[in-house]
Amino acid sequence: MGKRIWTFLCILILLTLSLSGCYYFGATKEMKAAEKLISELKAAGGATLVPYEYCSAEKFLENANLEASQNDWKHARDFASRSKSAAEAGLAEVKKK
Fold this sequence. Notes:
By secondary structure, this protein is mainly alpha-helical. It has helices at 2-43, 46-49, 51-69, 73-96.
């Protein structure tokens, strides 16, 4: 019976570590994508043409970086995703004009 408990605990620990690593990689990927879209939006004149979307995207990315610095990868990924969405919306509006 002792061997089963140790096996279960080892599997639980490995599963926990692998899931926490997924948040890290997901967050960094989203943050890089958001940075790229924000720079595209800035180059397209988004700061003056669509200031709400541009500022929203920058602030969400800033929050993502803050959460990442505190090793809160789940919230960092969420903020980066919101930043990416705001930048995409801004790019879509810029292309309409």
